[in-house]
Amino acid sequence: MHRCERKDKRSENKLITPATGIRLLQDNSGVAAIEAGLLFPVLAALLMGTVQFSLILYTNSAIQTAAREVTRQLAVNVLTTTAVQDAVHSRIPSWAAGSEVVSVSQTNPADPTSNYMTVSVNVPSSKASPLSFLTMGDWKLSATVTMKQEDKLP
Hints:
Distance between the termini: 115 Å
Radius of gyration: 33 Å
């Protein structure tokens, strides 16, 4: 018998017998690829969620720091109330800049000895992160800082 005429025993038996079925059930080839295919989307979603949450926490920290620094500058008379918006805008992340709502209030602007200055900064959830994976709902990041104004030096 020539090499070309050799018959493959597997090709002769096309019927699935109980023995063949058991062999197929015991065959583990490709299992790792299927498991990886099932787990990859879950792991990718966890990674994206972690990155998104971290960026939201960073934005929250940045707006709190900006509110505190700007209020301090107001309290020591380095900054005027008209320059607060620009000062806050320059201190928050670029993805949130432009969407912040800043408000300034004073208890008694005529008397620096009893004047308390309050700066509030709000950023909508849709701008809290450059990613939009977890930004569901209509919530805001906010920071409010109040400080007593210091007397002006002569």
